[in-house]
């Protein structure tokens, strides 16, 4: 797994290590995920963070967004996730493959079990939060800012600077880091465990090599993994979004923290408060996550 690519016959170019290939493949998968899933994501975030009764349904939210901002409104704040999520997924796959190699060294030739696959995914998820949290915070602020002039934020950089100044330094940019760690640790453990377990089963039943799995199966297993991710942690994602749209001024905040946000959401909305935006997320999931895995697998084949 750690072997180097053979250099070209003319000696030009540098070889890539397996880790470098993992990072490049993950970056390509991440950017593909953003381009496919961004319109669904902005609808999800607006429903999650809007006061109860603002939108009658995901379709109502999408319709109002279209009327207010036009078709490009569905790609508000895309530059940040396009670059940032590309980096995030790059870290995810790099950490995942590194953890899998670690456990494979102890497995002595057997397939990794579900526990090892989950731990590999959880490690990837937690490692990912260093970049994912600030990227998602900036994206959410841009996605939810009102369509007024002057704008609150004139792009990702302006937003990052204002979050830093108004939020008390780095803690303003890394707001809701704890729920992000919980979400990505548990969620990506389930995500990658589901995908890798399905791939293992496919290889056993067909006798083929991983690089011979058709893109259609990679999309299918990626879609299943996406559902495993969201069904395992969606309420935590709602809490994270609420905290990241709360005031940066400590005297004007609605929520004191993750636990307080959970209590207030339960008291005001009950179980429905933790499921806002679930429908567009589930519609988005098979497309975005299927595209992520097939892009990663195809990129790895091209580099190998």
From TrEMBL:
GO terms for biological process: mitochondrial L-ornithine transmembrane transport. It is a multi-pass membrane protein. Pfam families: Mito_carr. It comes from Kwoniella dendrophila CBS 6074. It comes from the Eukaryota. Keywords: Membrane, Mitochondrion, Repeat, Transmembrane, Transmembrane helix, Transport. GO terms for cellular component: mitochondrial membrane. Gene3D superfamilies: Mitochondrial carrier domain. The keyword Repeat applies. It is found in: Mitochondrion membrane. Solcar repeats lie at residues 17-102, 112-201, 213-302. PROSITE patterns: SOLCAR. This is Solute carrier family 25 (Mitochondrial carnitine/acylcarnitine transporter), member 20/29. Belongs to the mitochondrial carrier (TC 2.A.29) family. GO terms for molecular function: L-ornithine transmembrane transporter activity.
């Amino acid at each position: 797994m750690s072997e180097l690519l053979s250099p070209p016959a003319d000696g030009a170019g540098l070889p890539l290590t397996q880790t470098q290939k993992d990072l490049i493949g993950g970056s390509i998968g991440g950017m593909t995920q953003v381009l496919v899933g961004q319109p669904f994501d902005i609808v999800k975030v607006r429903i999650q963070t809007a006061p109860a009764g603002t939108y009658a349904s995901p379709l109502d939210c999408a319709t109002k967004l279209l009327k207010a901002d036009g078709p490009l409104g569905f790609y508000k704040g895309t530059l940040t996730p396009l670059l940032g999520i590309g980096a995030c997924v790059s870290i995810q796959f790099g950490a995942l493959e590194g953890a899998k190699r670690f456990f494979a060294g102890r497995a002595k030739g057997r397939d990794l079990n579900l526990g090892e696959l989950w731990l590999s995914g959880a490690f990837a998820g937690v490692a990912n939060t260093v970049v994912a949290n600030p990227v998602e915070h900036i994206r959410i602020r841009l996605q939810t800012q009102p369509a007024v002039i002057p704008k609150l934020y004139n792009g990702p950089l302006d937003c990052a600077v204002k979050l830093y100044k108004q939020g008390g330094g780095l803690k303003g940019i890394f707001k809701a880091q704890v729920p992000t760690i919980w979400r990505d640790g548990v969620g990506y453990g389930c995500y990658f465990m589901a995908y890798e377990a399905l791939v293992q089963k496919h290889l056993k039943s067909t006798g083929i090599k991983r690089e011979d799995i058709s893109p259609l199966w990679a999309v299918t297993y990626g879609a299943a993994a996406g559902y495993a991710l969201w069904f395992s942690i969606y309420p935590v994602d709602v809490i994270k979004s609420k905290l990241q749209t709360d005031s940066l001024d400590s005297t004007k905040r609605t929520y004191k923290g993750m636990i307080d946000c959970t209590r207030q959401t339960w008291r005001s909305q009950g179980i429905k408060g933790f499921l806002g935006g679930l429908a567009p997320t589930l519609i988005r999931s098979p497309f975005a996550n299927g595209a992520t895995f097939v892009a990663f697998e195809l990129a790895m084949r091209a580099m190998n």
